[in-house]
Amino acid sequence: MFIHESHQPNRLSPEHYTDATHLEHELDTLFRPGWHCVGALTDLPKHGDYFTGNLFGQPLIVWRQGDAVHSFLNVCTHRFSLISRKPCGHFDGRIKCQYHGWEYNEEGDTCQIPDARSFKPMKRGELGLTKFRTETVGQLIFVTVNEDAPSLKEYLGEYLYELCQRWFTLEHRHTTNLDIEHDCNWKVVIENVLEGYHVNCVHPTTFEQYPDPECCTHEIHDYWDRYTDDYSNRGTFTGREKLVSKLAGVKPDFVWKHLSRYPNIAMAQMGLFTFIQTVIPVSPTTCRAVWRVFHYPGKPGRFRTKIAQLMLKKWGSWFLTKVVGEDAEIYPSIQRGIGAGQRPNGGLISVREERIFAFQDFVLKSVTNGNGRAPT
Questions:
Q1: 35-148 belongs to which CATH class?
Q2: Fold that domain 1-34+160-370 belongs to in CATH
Q3: Per-residue pLDDT tens for 146-174?
């Protein structure tokens, strides 16, 4: 059952989804102080592997050295070229700039400069890379751009941190990655994943219909929430899960669990699948959604497990790509409607969508002085 007995009002105005000033306040109060999942160890399978990306407009390079992962601003300190323009690659022992060949170690210190005598006087290690704090939990890689941020465990909270350890273990296998830019404000994406009211229209062939309230529970906390759905009586999903679980040698669960750590992290488990989604603002009307999806292959050393592994990877990749694609098609229409110059009266949040009300309340309180106005 749900927490509220009646619908709730929208807490945010259209300007919160369209205005650059509001976005800047959100970046300052919600995003830059926090931790963000930028990838997983499966993206860096070998010592020396790296991948690049962007975080709040800043180019990022994430590099593995042994069991440690390091993150830097992907900008050379010589004449500010991107160190690497490739989405991923390999640096054996040092990071090497693609432009003039300057080299850096795992601390970002300058180690080798071609024709170094032409740069005298210059101390060893001078002009090192900008390094960002990086932590891993399970297979997940988190980065913060704030030197004063608490530890990742403090930021997530003990419950969510331990959940990451269980859901994204080294035993979990990679299913698929998604990195998609959406034509909408970041909150549109988060609000969409916080409710299942849209599934009848947007996902008629995947989720088919929203569940009976008697099968659902909502749990709302100060900065995170939790949703569970017991789907044991819905044959569309249980039949497939029974088969794969039997092949994998594990007991089926039949409970969909979805959690959100405000403002921009969502995690879920369904059957043998787990995923994490991080939504990063790009502009007031665009954002990036970064997904890492895993599956638990089952008991090792069994031929059936190998079959289950192949089925899980193929079906999981297809299913998630389809569902995310269906949502992506509707996002521009939501953004255009929110930003319309003239709008009808309304803006109601149903009890089935009450996680949105909690999320909007968190955002509003975080970026305002409690009177609905952004701080100056």
A1: mainly beta
A2: Naphthalene 1,2-dioxygenase Alpha Subunit; Chain A, domain 1 (3.90.380)
A3: 999 999 999 999 999 999 999 999 999 99
